[in-house]
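Regression test case RT-17, inverse folding.

Input:
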């Protein structure tokens, strides 16, 4: 099974590659933006079994990037990947012909199962996401952290740098580093990659 992962966050791409290749039967290629993904699709000897496109990476222009990728006509199945998309966007993606909608908040095992499911020709969207009300459930890991630490951890799971997180939250980089040191201790992580993996596997974001 061959999967193309197109996302502009290095950490997220590397994490997904690690998850999928740990299965042994999934080969992956990656691209940092939509034009690079299209070049790989067009240069491939045979269609990818699945193409995962980040909704917010360069070149996407919302759902237009999804439609353009589907229109390449190489036979590849294309799914949308996002940590911020609404249920409405997910529904529109599926209506446009996407193989599925994959929230970046999915735990590792669910992510792997979703990829295999879509690559086999099925359409995927998590039922709990598509039917959930707009409320934030309590979570054991979230209960350990302050709201600001949760915001920093969310930035880590999205593959953002300290500078990007600081800009998003309108605070300084040294403050971000202090928050990270505290949240590492609270969740039992030794570095940013481990903290992001733990949050993802716990389904926190």
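Golden output:
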């Amino acid at each position: 099974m061959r999967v193309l992962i197109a996302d502009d966050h290095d950490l997220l791409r590397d994490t997904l590659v690690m998850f999928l290749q740990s299965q042994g039967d999934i080969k992956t290629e990656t691209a940092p933006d939509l034009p690079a993904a299209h070049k790989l699709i067009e240069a491939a000897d045979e269609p990818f079994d699945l193409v995962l496109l980040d909704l917010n990476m360069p070149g996407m222009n919302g759902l237009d990037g999804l439609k353009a990728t589907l229109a390449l006509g190489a036979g590849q199945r294309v799914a949308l990947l996002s940590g911020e998309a609404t249920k409405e966007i997910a529904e529109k993606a599926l209506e446009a012909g996407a193989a599925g909608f994959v929230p970046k908040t999915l735990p590792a095992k669910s992510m792997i199962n979703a990829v295999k499911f879509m690559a086999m020709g099925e359409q995927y969207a998590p039922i709990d996401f598509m039917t959930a009300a707009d409320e934030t459930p309590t979570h054991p890991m979230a209960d350990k952290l302050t709201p600001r630490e949760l915001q920093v951890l969310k930035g880590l799971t999205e593959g953002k740098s300290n500078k990007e997180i600081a800009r998003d939250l309108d605070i300084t980089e040294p403050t971000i580093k202090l928050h990270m040191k505290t949240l590492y201790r609270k969740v039992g992580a030794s570095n940013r990659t481990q903290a992001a993996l733990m949050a993802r596997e716990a389904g926190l974001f």
